[in-house]
Amino acid sequence: MFDYITGELSKRADISAWQVMRVDTRSNQLFLIKDGVESERRVDTVKYHVTIHQERTEDGKAVLGESSFVYIEGEEIGPKLDLAVTMAQGVSNQPWSLPGPDQRYMGSEVKDASIAMSAEKVIEKIKEELIHSVDGLEGVRLSSSEVFADYHEYQFVNSLGLKASEADTAILWEYVLLTGEGHGEVESSGIKQVRFYKDLKVRETLKKYAGYAKDSLTAKPPESGVFDVVFAEEALDNLFNSFVAHAGGSAAYQGWSRFEKGRPVIDNPEGELFTMYSNPQLPGFMKSGPFDDNGLANKYTEVIKDNIFKKRTLDKRYADYLGEEPTGRFANVEVECGINSTEKLLTEGCYYLLRFSTFEPNPVTGNFSGEIRTGYKIVGGERVPIKGGSVTGVIQDAFRRAWFSSDKVSRSAYRGPAAVKLMGLNLGGE
To answer: In Å, what is the CA distance from 40 to each residue of 146, 147, 148, 171, 208?
Structure first.
């Protein structure tokens, strides 16, 4: 099928360059309602993701038209190519070239052999562990759960002769726990993504979220005012996204990146200095992998060192636009730890925030506002549950007084301090 697709692409004089990614997915899926199986199924798909480039001249200036489509075996490819060319004629981007065949790929451990060999057995183990674990939770019951265990194979080729292949696995687990009765019933839901079954930790995860559910029965909104806040667990997944965005090629090319090479990323820091890497080689992490969507080799990159901006993460497009060396996409966020444990960061009167309804700092402005789902106030050395209300701030201001825990945590695409303390944030509650 590759030969058929690439052959048809090569025949077209109105296509100057192209790439094709074949994605073969085997997905075993489990759906539970309470403690019973609603359904189990397997879904197999093979899709070819095709992108075409069309170089042309407009008003004496070179431009690049681009268009993409998904091809499924058995379809007529001719009409899809005709439509793609028509759509590309409506796009006039600055030209850039696809990666060539001289890529040097680094190995990434992203495949669980047990899922690749028999995802059905892995699903069965998860189901048994899930049901047994819930039975052991006093006062908490399972409302629903979904589990997807996927095996992917990727094959890539482009018109410059680049060929690449990779295989990975992934488990996506969603769950909803309930506690309380009647009008006092509350839920605690979560989503977990891992590449390896061993990292799912069903029993440990359910016990933790059952605790959150029970705590929410007595939780009250936080006080309104200015407080020190310690972010941990789910809050860490997006806390650094603004730094990632400003370190990227798109931000620099479009003119809104605050970062300049050799300059501080945070002005006048009063806390610990911040170091961040893009790491595509962390075993079992969701953004690990040898190449990006254009077949470009992903590289380990020191982005920020002791608050000084070192290097941008650039795909091939923006590397060409900016005249710099490409690194591949920003992969997993890796942050260096600090000198104090999480427990030492949890000082009297501060808030310890773990889960939000939404928490996504604006990539351009750095503004953030998160509605609190699970948190605690430190009172007399104890953790008093809170929920509701919100925390707001601006990333570049908040990180002026930042402290990073010495203990480390690994999440789906983050490895670094288990807790980050930001001083003097605004909380809105009672």
So the answer is: 10, 10, 10, 15, 27
